[in-house]
From TrEMBL:
Belongs to the ATP-dependent DNA ligase family. This is DNA ligase. Coiled coil: none annotated. The keyword Magnesium applies. It comes from Halobaculum marinum. Its cofactor is Mg(2+). The active site is at residue 288.
Length: 634
């Protein structure tokens, strides 16, 4: 598919307000992304099967959700590439000034007079001004090269490659290139719309026909659920679209988990022992460990010596560990690798928490695990300072069996079979007093709270449903996206001093990657040393700067403590936090995991209390969970 065609279709989606009409446009685009069906002789020789790429691009992604590759292109690199393609009179600062005016990089890219900068394009990276029109596949291949560039010179390779693409782009193409590179398409296509369109385009579902006009034996909901399930299992809209087109329902039914390919984590809502007992009659109670979520994949290998030193080459070992965002964190946690190699008895996918413990094995506060999690350097030294242990609490796959659809109690049995140490203790009880005593004990032992789970619940990847409840007495913290900052004064002039923090806002289609609404400014609770670290962490994400104030691309999440949520005209969320204080950087969370405006409203007592599910209604993007979809079937 020509990239211009993709851009044209994306424009049409962005202009469309109705959910069903958007799904129809997406379905047409998916259907048109395959190879040309015309006879061989008439076929365009550049014609290729771009379905998987187009499906991912529509969601602003280059790679499948499970794929660890990242473009590593921040706003400043993108601005620089745009400025170069716009000619000698435009600088990256000019791009930032325009961004401060228009507020959106796609619009800025479209306004610039790009192209024709042949001289600079000669330096590496595919700048090939004046060549044929860009195709979707070419854009994809260039972006793969950007993501895979490493070592000396990779930064300038990335810049040159992006410049080469922008230099060949029409205004409309430039809009979507810039947004794609920064991961925000803003065309109102949520994961739910893409799922529904896949079912419509390739399985004959009637998503765009209003429910009351459908045949009695209409199977739309069933087909949509089938696509949804395949998305949960594969974490790849591209692959699922191809399967639906090429192998139909049977192909989707056959997809299975793969050891080494991460799955989205099942999430919890807040709830009490009484809520659990009222809803289910009995509950599985478990300690809520205050650590970082890990998903561990163990692939048994003939040459894997039990208890061997797993720290050798974690990239190639039988154990891989992923964060809640499916980022590979294996290298940061060698003791968990060793633990699993020594104690796993069969290939498995395990869900659990990595917790920091002191010399007596007692839990350390959450901040301690953050010093270890995702660490790339000094792992051995930090290992001496902070010890990490595994508390496994779920099992998604064991010895060749996928267990997503098995009840929790069965998954626990399989977990204990497959891992003989490091499994969390559980209590299954129908006695509320007994569960409350369990909770009191967990808190007395220094844990964060308890998890309450429905005993027969299946594992629902990416979903924040009502099957898992979390009960923690101290809930007055929010995970907020850092959207801006002000430079400090005096001796702190080189450091950010005050941080603007925001909740996520889901747009009407449930697309969670869009807007943010400010809830406050955080300046307390931060030491000078932390300020220096935070400045280093946030500087690459600066989007625009004006006087003392900067704005950031939404990437970094702070855990923020507060005393109260008040209504306030000061911020665009309509709320302000009373006494906000910085607690930690949530290294384990991305911007899409931050708290939402809906949750803020509910905590402030303004929400729809009955429908707890309103919380984080757009929490999952890749799989399309939690989104209000066009079928209304959610
Ligand atoms: N026994 C357990 N079962 C499930 N999750 C647990 C358990 N112990 C600790 N946890 C942690 O608690 C979290 C459950 O809360 P939730 O799904 O809302 O995630 P979260 O947004 O990271 O929440 P929080 O900030 O409260 O940890 C899990 O993501 C996991 O990291």
């Amino acid at each position: 598919m020509e990239f211009a065609t993709f851009a044209e279709r994306a424009d049409a989606m962005a202009a469309e307000e109705g959910d069903l009409a958007t799904v129809a446009l997406v379905a047409e685009t998916l259907a048109a992304a395959g190879p040309d069906a015309s006879p061989e002789a008439d076929r365009d020789p550049t014609d290729s099967d771009d379905l998987a790429i187009v499906a991912r691009f529509l969601r602003g992604a280059v790679f499948p959700g499970w794929d660890g590759r990242k473009l590593s292109v921040g706003p400043s690199l993108c601005h620089e590439a745009l400025a170069r393609a716009a000619g000698a009179n435009v600088t990256a600062d000019d791009v930032e000034d325009r961004l401060a005016e228009t507020g959106e990089i796609g619009a800025v890219a479209a306004q610039l007079d790009l192209g024709g900068q042949t001289g600079l394009a000669a330096f590496g990276g595919g700048g090939d001004a004046g060549a044929d029109d860009l195709t979707v596949r070419e854009v994809y291949e260039e972006l793969v090269a950007v993501a895979e560039a490493t070592g000396d010179g990779s930064e300038s390779f990335r810049l040159d490659t992006l410049f080469g693409l922008f230099n060949r782009a029409t205004p409309s193409e430039a809009t979507y290139l810039a947004r794609l590179v920064l991961g925000e398409m803003r065309i109102g296509v949520g994961g739910g719309a893409l799922r529904d369109a896949t079912a419509e385009a390739f399985l004959g579902a009637s998503v765009t026909t209003p429910t009351e006009e459908r045949d009695e034996d209409d199977r739309t909901d069933e087909l949509v659920a089938l696509v949804e399930r395949a998305l949960q299992v594969t974490n790849d809209h591209g692959r699922v679209a191809e399967l639906a087109r090429d192998e139909g329902e049977a192909g989707l039914r056959d997809v299975s988990l793969a050891v080494g390919r991460p799955v989205r984590s099942m999430l919890a809502q807040a709830g009490t022992v009484a809520d659990a007992m009222d809803a289910w009659g009995s509950a599985v109670a478990e300690t809520k460990y205050d650590g970082a979520r890990v998903q561990i994949h163990y692939e048994e290998r003939a040459d894997d010596n039990e208890g061997a030193d797993g720290a050798g080459d974690p990239d190639d070992g039988p154990v891989s560990i992923y964060s809640r965002n499916m980022e590979d964190v294996t290298a940061a946690l060698p003791e968990l690798v060793e633990h699993v190699r020594a104690h796993a008895t069969a290939p498995a996918i395990l869900d659990g928490e990595a917790v920091a413990v002191d010399d007596d094995g007692e839990p350390l506060p959450f901040q301690a695990i953050l010093r270890r999690f995702r660490r790339k350097y000094d792992v051995d030294r930090m290992r001496e300072e902070v010890r990490v242990e595994l508390r496994a609490f779920d099992c998604l796959h064991a010895a060749g069996d996928d267990l997503l659809d098995a009840p929790l109690t069965e998954r626990h049995d399989r977990l204990r079979e497959v891992l003989d140490e490091g499994v969390s203790e559980v209590l299954v009880s129908d006695d509320a007093a007994e569960v409350e005593a369990f909770e009191a004990e967990a808190l007395a032992a220094g844990h964060e709270g308890v998890m309450l789970k429905r005993p027969d619940s299946t594992y629902d990847p990416g979903n924040r449903g009502k099957e898992w409840l979390k009960r923690k007495p101290d809930v007055e913290t929010l995970d907020l996206v850092v959207t801006g900052a002000e430079w400090g004064e005096g001796r702190r002039a080189e450091l950010f001093g005050t941080f603007e923090v925001s909740v996520r806002v889901a747009d009407e289609s449930g697309d969670a990657s869009g807007e943010h609404a400010v809830v406050g400014k955080v300046a307390t609770g931060i030491t000078d040393e932390e300020l220096a670290d935070l400045t280093d962490l946030l500087e690459p994400h600066v989007r625009s700067e004006s006087g003392q104030t900067v704005t950031f691309a939404p990437e970094v999440v702070f855990e923020v403590g507060y005393e109260e949520i008040q209504t306030s005209p000061t911020y665009d969320s309509g709320y302000a936090l009373r006494f906000p204080r910085f607690l930690a950087v949530r290294e384990d969370k991305g911007a899409d995991d931050a708290d939402t405006l809906t949750r803020l409203r509910r905590l402030a007592g303004d929400g729809d209390d009955g429908a707890d599910g309103g919380d984080d209604s757009a929490d999952a993007d890749e799989s399309g969970d939690g989104e209000r979809d066009a079928t209304g079937a959610e």
